[in-house]
Specification:
The chain has seven helices and four strands, in the order ααβαβαββααα. The protein has about 200 residues and is an alpha+beta fold. Strands 2-1-3-4 form a four-stranded mixed beta sheet.
Length: about 200
Amino acid sequence: MASRLATLSTTSRAAVWAHQKSQRSLNSNLRLVHGLAKRAAGPPVHVRAAYRETTSSSSSSSQPAWAIKMLYDGDCPLCMREVDMLRRRDASQGRIAFVDVAAPDYDPAQHGGISFEAAMERIHAVEADGTILTDVEVFRRLYEEVGLGWVYAVTKQPWALNLANKLYSVWAKYRLPITGRPDLQQVLEQKKMCREPPQSTGGGV
């Protein structure tokens, strides 16, 4: 009996010793792996702080929701067909901001400094970063935003863009008479008269 107890005691001590040795080996391996991982990763990076900084800087930039702002002549019937088509295709996206330069409250300072006269001479657009576009490049960007980029894709080639701009310049030059309106000079004079306050006739009761 005593011999069996001694044997069990010896076996138990051996099992405990083996378990402790295995645990020490496991801990040693874990420390080794952890050390290798730290060296591979390099110095610690404060991810949370960097995230907060990125978030605050992006929110403070107040980037507009639209990607491009189209300046158009609301009194031009042919122009309005184009505007209406783009509005329909952009209705659920909000990628295009539409600005009527013929509106009484049009303010060039709010739209890239583009004057009413300049906007009437040829089409303009302003991208969200402030870049001003003119002529056929405006149509190419607008069509890209509504999923029709293939229509003007060829104008990405310099020769095609140059040719398209020449054709557009002819249209822009004769746009007003073609649509049955007075020439640009008369339109500008009418616009000026509308903006000027009426002159007092003098006299009194």
